[in-house]
Design goal:
The complex is a heterotrimer. Chain B has helices at residues 5-36, 43-60, 67-89, 99-121, 147-169, 171-181, 183-188, 193-215, 225-240, 245-265, 270-284, and strands at residues 137-139, 144-146. Chain B is an all-alpha fold. In chain B, strand 1 and strand 2 form a beta hairpin. Chain C has a domain at 28-234. In chain C, helix 3 (60-76) packs antiparallel against helix 4 (81-103) and helix 7 runs antiparallel to helix 10. The chains are: A alpha/beta, B mainly alpha, C mainly alpha.
């Protein structure tokens, strides 16, 4: 006979096993909750972003902290899963007593953390999620800020390139989820504005989880377009390239791709498999710009990671925290309301240049680096690099 | 679209070659499912391991003639060895237990293997270059077609024929067939059923490793690739009939063709359609298109 | 006698849970709320697995339907809370009835596969029907009524819903119907032989399980102010299965205990190591090989020895 006694055990168990190990909330410390995926499909990005976060914290602490208070990062694995990220964000606030949240990678995780930050009234800096939905009027709230570029900037800058390259018949291949659809809206609307005669010939939408793109590649090649705008991001691109290459795809069309395909870590990984002459973007590239601030950042990162050629993702974690630090310094406190007031309209000097956080929609004017991929002629770095490379600013594009 | 014969032909080839690559992996899954009655959720993780091991072996054998092919064979062997360890130390003690425990076991394997891959190979996207001689395209008369995908197609057909021959024409194959239908009878004949099970699990896993290694140059190696493939393999195995090799072949082909023509005819809803197809097959022919209904 | 003692124990458990917000911080309030939601989900699942012997591989579907329906009815359509909440549960029940009608025609592995196929179909629809579900971005900003939109209040709301549902489930499994359901698990043919309509018995179990899963899903939506497509993905179905087995499918409260253990393990392991999946995997293996009856099985044995 089953007894109800076991219900008792539930209670006993929840009461004993889960005795909270309350983090001693040290008054002198500012705690920052970082939600980056360190497992699952997005972990490649999360690990690096977390390292960038830690690097800034170490720098700030070595210089005496913020307003005399030390920074501390508390990390939770957001796993690229919004439900998990929601629970972890709550956990950070309720248990770890964090003062701020940073992180997220996918759009859904960004939205999930934003939802928690709204109900808990804790500032959240979205360092990587790009979907414009996060900052549209119905979703915007006082506690969410974005240091990442949004999809408008990314898709719009691709349209700027398409215009400059004189492309008139354009096909698109974008992943059939929100990231792809947002890119599409940005690209097509910007293109219609700046190059009204250009025609979108065919639109391909590979499904979530697809590993085979040949059917889409074939359709595009049959459509006879001169340019392709793609949202096949860095995690998927090697597969796409190895399937498209043998068809002669990259020789037939001018390929412009969003999704950080130009990042040094991917270029190094793909080596000669990176198609020559495609146009790609990145959040950062260690070889540009040649400014003291950027060179210092790269040197520090080299030391931090112990690698010669630094990856592009750490800068996202680094800058997200830079916003907080500068805002706290300006406000002279870590109080939420004061930091929000300081963040709105704030301009900071990041390793890649000055950026401003718009007061109206809490979006930083973060642009992206774009360039044409060519094998480097530097013997010390025999990998594809962006050449020429430029920073396309966000100001004209982010709306 | 059909007014463009070249396009239609290429899409046909796309569908077939995708289907054949999927078949190699799904064949292993259906073999294990048919004989051991174990729903192996770790099959996708085995496939992933195959791809990653191939990546490492390609590096190791770089410079050797046919290094890539050695790496492919090495991956299959590595997975066979891994499966042998899993079977002899753990899985064999679960055959007499409820399905449920076997499922749980394969879940646990998935978790551990995904960590193992992360620990060993890191989290960056890795890619394997196409092997020498297979980088370009071949003239098929109607159009050019990527040589490596022709090879994948050939490999799938080769695996299909060899498996058909093994199961239907060899003594060992007869045991496998018998084990699929009536375990008790086999035991009463004095056959070591445990050994048959072990060999089937090892062979099925080796196929996952082979499939992963062959797919490595055509897909990117990244965490999460196991979850993508396992769902597709289940669809194939269900549509074809649990345990049916011929069914897996037909199922893989159907899925491949649906994917290639689906994006032309019903873009956007192919994903719903695939699951709908799976539901309909199960509702009206639960034993699959080519499977046999079980005797009551 | 036994029932009386159990009623007392049940009462004590209820009071102990009810005291959580009074004696602990916000963190535990959140965690226990989440545990209660998943405990209900696991209890509903065990009606199929533990009592009916039906291995459903798509139980997440009804959780997700309840969750999405609750979100859409309250937010998009602006229904009053009770109507929206009730209709969401009703919709889960109806979906379970329709899907269950086809599933119970099959047995064993085919049953599992068809439940999986239907659940994946539900996922695909949630993923593609962006206009209603907001696709993979997730449905956020759910209009939770003000009177419950506060952690401690919501905790008590969840506790009451859980208590009512658990009591109903308890009555169900101990009713004549529940006994018949167990009989169909024990011996399908004999049950049929003595004139039991096995399929109908199983269908009823399927609908009941789906209904209570829908309640859990609706609670999840209210708790998070959001619902995501991941809630319908097959891993969510696997998770509830792991919970049930961890706790023990052979006892009524086992799955609820399993839900608590899994969530606590999940949270605490993730803090200690990035390799938490391995640790969790090893724990699962240990349960599998050394405590096949689950944790409640161990407790039961220990209890017997003690007497």
């Amino acid at each position: 006979m089953i007894t109800k006694k076991r219900l008792m055990a539930v209670a006993a168990l929840t009461a004993t096993t889960a005795i909270p190990t309350f983090a001693a909330a040290d008054e002198g410390v500012i705690r920052i909750g970082a939600l980056y995926p360190t497992s699952g499909p997005c972990q490649m990005i999360g690990d690096f972003a977390l390292q960038g976060t830690q690097m800034l914290v170490d720098e700030v602490n070595a210089a005496g902290g913020v307003n005399g208070q030390m920074l501390e990062v508390v990390h939770r694995d957001s796993r690229c899963d919004p439900a998990e990220a929601t629970a972890m964000a709550r956990d950070l606030i309720a248990r770890e007593d964090v003062d701020f949240l940073v992180g997220g990678v996918s759009s859904s995780v960004g939205q999930a953390i934003s939802a928690v930050s709204r109900t808990e009234e804790v500032i959240y800096i979205a360092s990587i999620p790009k979907t414009v939905q996060m900052t549209t009027p119905e979703n915007l709230h006082p506690y969410v800020f974005r240091s990442a570029a949004n999809t408008n900037t990314e898709g719009g800058s691709a349209a700027v390139l398409a215009d400059r390259l004189g492309l008139d018949r354009i096909c698109t291949i974008l992943m059939d989820y929100s990231y792809g659809h947002s890119l599409n809206e940005a690209f097509t609307s910007t293109l219609a504005e700046i190059r009204p005669d250009a025609e979108i010939v065919v639109q391909e939408w590979p499904q979530n989880g697809t590993t085979d793109y040949t059917a889409h590649i074939t359709n595009i090649m049959a459509a006879g377009c001169d340019g392709v705008f793609s949202g096949v991001w860095a995690g998927l691109f090697p597969a796409f390239a190895s399937q498209a290459g043998p068809f002669g795809f990259f020789d037939q069309v001018t390929y412009i791709t969003a999704g950080e395909v130009g990042s040094p870590e991917l270029a190094e990984q793909m080596g000669a498999d990176m198609p020559e002459g495609i146009w790609a973007n990145s959040y950062e590239v260690f070889y540009y710009p040649d400014t003291p601030a950027h060179n210092d950042f790269v040197a520090d990162l080299q030391e931090e990671l112990g690698v010669e050629h630094t990856p592009s993702w750490p800068v996202t974690g680094y800058v997200a925290l830079q916003w907080l630090v500068e805002a706290m310094e300006l406000a002279g406190s870590a109080e939420t309301d004061a930091v929000i007031a300081a963040l709105e309209g704030l301009s900071i000097e990041t390793p890649i240049g000055t950026q401003t956080m718009r007061a109206s929609d809490h979006q930083a004017n973060r642009g992206q680096f774009w360039g044409q991929m060519h094998m480097s002629d530097d013997d010390a770095y025999p990998y594809p690099v962006m050449d020429p490379v430029e920073y396309i600013p966000a100001d004209e594009l982010m709306d | 679209m059909f007014n463009n014969p070249v396009l239609t032909f290429i899409q046909l080839m796309n569908g077939i070659s995708l289907g054949m690559n999927l078949f190699i992996i799904a064949a292993g899954l259906t073999l294990i499912l048919g004989v051991l009655r174990v729903l192996n959720f770790a099959h996708g993780a085995f496939y992933m391991m195959g791809g990653y091991i191939c990546f490492s072996l390609v590096g190791l054998f770089a410079g050797l003639p046919g290094g890539f092919w050695l790496a492919v064979v090495g991956s299959a062997i590595a997975l066979a060895a891994f499966a042998w360890v899993v079977e002899t130390t753990m899985l064999r003690h679960l055959y007499d237990r409820d399905h449920l425990y076997q499922l749980l076991f394969t879940f646990a394997l998935v978790m551990i293997i995904s960590d193992l891959v992360r620990f060993n190979w890191g989290t960056n996207v890795l890619s394997v270059s196409l092997p020498n001689g297979f980088r370009g395209a071949t003239d098929l008369g109607i159009s050019f077609y990527p040589t490596y995908r022709l090879l994948l197609t050939g490999m799938g057909i080769f695996v299909a024929i060899s498996m058909w021959y093994f199961v239907n024409k060899t003594r060992a194959g007869r045991f496998v067939r018998a084990a699929r239908q009536d375990r008790e009878m086999l035991e009463s004949l004095g056959i070591n059923v445990g050994r048959v099970y072990m060999l089937v699990f090892v062979a099925g896993s080796a196929l996952a490793g082979l499939g992963g290694a062959l797919a490595a140059p055509a897909v990117s190696l990244a965490p999460g690739m196991d979850a993508e493939i396992i769902v597709q393999c289940f669809i194939i195995v269900i549509i074809g009939g649990l345990g049916s090799l011929g069914g897996a072949f037909v199922g893989a082909l159907m899925l491949g063709l649906l994917k290639s023509f689906g994006v032309m005819l019903i873009p956007n809803f192919e994903i719903v359609l695939i699951y709908l197809m799976m539901v309909i097959v199960l509702m009206f022919r639960p034993w699959g298109l080519l499977g046999k209904p079980e005797a009551k | 006698m036994i029932t009386q003692r159990n009623m007392i124990l049940l009462g004590i458990a209820f009071v102990a849970l009810a005291l959580v917000p009074a004696v602990s911080g916000l963190f535990l309030v959140y965690l226990v709320t989440e545990i209660m939601i998943f405990a209900l989900f696991a209890l509903s699942f065990n009606l199929l697995l533990g009592y009916g012997g039906l291995i459903s591989f798509g139980h997440a579907a009804y959780f997700a339907i309840g969750a999405y329906a609750c979100a859409v009815l309250l937010t998009t359509l602006g229904w009053p809370f009770l109507f929206g909440f009730g209709a969401a549960i009703l919709l889960s029940a109806v979906s379970a009835a329709v899907i269950g009608y086809f599933c119970v025609k099959l047995t064993e592995i085919y049953f599992s596969m068809l439940t999986l196929a239907f659940a994946q179909l539900v996922w695909a629809i949630a993923f593609k029907w962006v206009a209603v579900t907001n696709g993979d971005t997730g449905f956020t900003g759910v209009a939770v009524p003000g009177w419950m939109d506060e952690p401690v209040r919501f905790f008590y709301f969840t506790l009451i819903v859980l208590a009512v549902c658990a009591y109903m489930l308890w009555r169900i499994v101990n009713s004549a119907y529940g006994m018949t359901l167990v009989a169909t698990r024990e011996n399908y043919n004999r049950a049929e032989f003595i004139g039991v309509n096995v399929r109908r018995i199983q269908l009823v179990a399927f609908v009941l399980a789906g209904t209570f899963a829908g309640v859990a899903g609706a609670l999840f939506t209210l708790f998070n102010h959001a619902v995501f497509v991941e809630n319908a993905w097959w891993t969510q179905s696997a998770e509830v299965m792991i919970m049930s087995i961890l706790g023990g499918v052979g006892s009524f409260v086992g799955p609820a205990v399993g839900a608590a253990i899994l969530l606590i393990l999940d949270r605490s392991l993730a803090e200690i190591t990035v390799y938490w999946p391995t640790v969790l995997g090893i724990i699962l293996l240990a349960v599998l090989f050394f405590f096949p009856e689950g944790l409640m099985g161990v407790a039961k044995k220990a209890g017997r020895k003690g007497k």
